[in-house]
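Quick one:
INPUT:
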């Protein structure tokens, strides 16, 4: 099968101690560090084309981190920084995140329907690994052209909660999308994000996910290393 990558979501860490929290996760057996980059604008409104109106109307109270924080963290670790861009215009972040030392750059298909070719090319030209993500309500067919196209993404992130916050409940119905993807692409990196932990990992792993993001279940556990190793075993079974 495809190698397991366990990626603690640093959104659940103590941001004031980011470097030591990152090191703690690596010491606990993490493969990647998942970095949630949000610009405070809800993706929902972007289905319409009126950017100004939507940005004013649909703020979420969650503004997280940006390139300066990635740059600071990069000075403390060589780890793979798996960046998940929940922003209205991912193209604007390619250059700054590339400079900052991001490793993976995963954008949302909902905001990149018109320019993903250019986006993928630029991400690669900055030395990052391109990925595409989709929200629970977005059909899986929308990402097929990005996996198969001239400028293919190297990972698909299937959101298993509505993006925006850690600590939400896993949506089992999203597993149909993971199964469909795995059937079509046996060696693709398929990531899941949201509500993953000891009680949901088997559903995701048996559906075919190999990259596992987990925030609250890892940071909230008394023994984070145990949760990470349990999830790795489930993927590798
Ligand atoms: C949600 C983020 C997730 C989040 C996951 O929008 O993309 O990465 O941190 O947190 P948990 O694992 O707590 O659901
Ligand atoms: Zn995420």
């Amino acid at each position: 099968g495809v190698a397991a990558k366990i990626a603690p979501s640093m959104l659940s860490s103590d941001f004031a101690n980011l470097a030591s929290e990152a090191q703690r996760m690596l010491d606990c057996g993490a493969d990647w560090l998942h970095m949630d980059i949000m610009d405070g604008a809800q993706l929902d409104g972007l289905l319409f084309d009126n950017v100004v109106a939507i940005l004013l109307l649909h703020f979420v109270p969650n503004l997280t981190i940006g390139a300066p924080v990635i740059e600071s963290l990069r000075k403390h670790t060589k780890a793979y920084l798996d960046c998940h861009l929940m922003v209205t215009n991912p193209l604007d972040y390619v250059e700054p995140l590339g400079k900052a030392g991001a490793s993976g750059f995963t954008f949302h298909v909902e905001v990149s329907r018109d320019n993903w070719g250019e986006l993928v090319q630029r991400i690669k030209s900055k030395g990052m690994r391109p990925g595409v993500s989709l929200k629970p309500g977005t059909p899986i067919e929308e990402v097929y052209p990005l996996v198969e196209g001239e400028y293919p993404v190297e990972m698909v992130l299937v959101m298993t909660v509505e993006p925006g916050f850690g600590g939400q409940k896993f949506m089992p119905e999203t597993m149909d999308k993971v199964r469909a993807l795995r059937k079509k692409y046996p060696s693709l990196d398929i990531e899941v994000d949201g509500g993953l932990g000891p009680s949901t990992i088997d559903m995701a792993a048996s559906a075919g996910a190999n990259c596992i993001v987990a925030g609250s279940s890892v940071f909230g556990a008394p023994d984070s290393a145990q949760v990470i190793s349990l999830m790795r075993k489930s993927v590798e079974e």
